[in-house]
Amino acid sequence: MVLKRPFVTEKAMLMVEGGNELQFIVERNATKQDIRRALESAFEQEVRSVRTMMTTKGQKKATVSFADAKAAEEILSRLGIM
């Protein structure tokens, strides 16, 4: 499983509202293409871009933006977060 869990903070919630972006903690060896495929197959939403970074705790965090304007909110509601 490439995706471990959604990364939900106050700043991440502002990114959902302002930029239609979600953040996920992913496997350290996952590539951007792996993350894109996993999200598109799991949530059936077209991914526009994937940015990754390493956190100070040694975890890999992916910031994902979607083509559909309401995709991020829909995914969070499906996960029971929003």
Automatic annotation (TrEMBL):
Its biological purpose: Binds to 23S rRNA. One of the proteins that surrounds the polypeptide exit tunnel on the outside of the ribosome.
A molecular-function term among this protein's GO annotations: rRNA binding
Keywords for the protein's UniProt record, in alphabetical order: Ribonucleoprotein, Ribosomal protein, RNA-binding, rRNA-binding
Protein name per UniProt: Large ribosomal subunit protein uL23
Any Gene Ontology biological process: translation
Coiled coil regions in record: none
Pfam families linked to this entry: Ribosomal_L23
GO cellular component entries: ribonucleoprotein complex; ribosome
Protein's UniProt keywords contain RNA-binding: yes
Description of how the protein assembles with itself and partners: Part of the 50S ribosomal subunit. Contacts protein L29.
PANTHER family recorded: 60S RIBOSOMAL PROTEIN L23A
Alphabetical list of SUPFAM superfamilies matching this protein: Ribosomal proteins S24e, L23 and L15e
NCBIfam families named among the record's database cross-references: PRK14548.1 (NF011118), uL23_arch (TIGR03636)
Family as reported in the entry's similarity comment: Belongs to the universal ribosomal protein uL23 family.
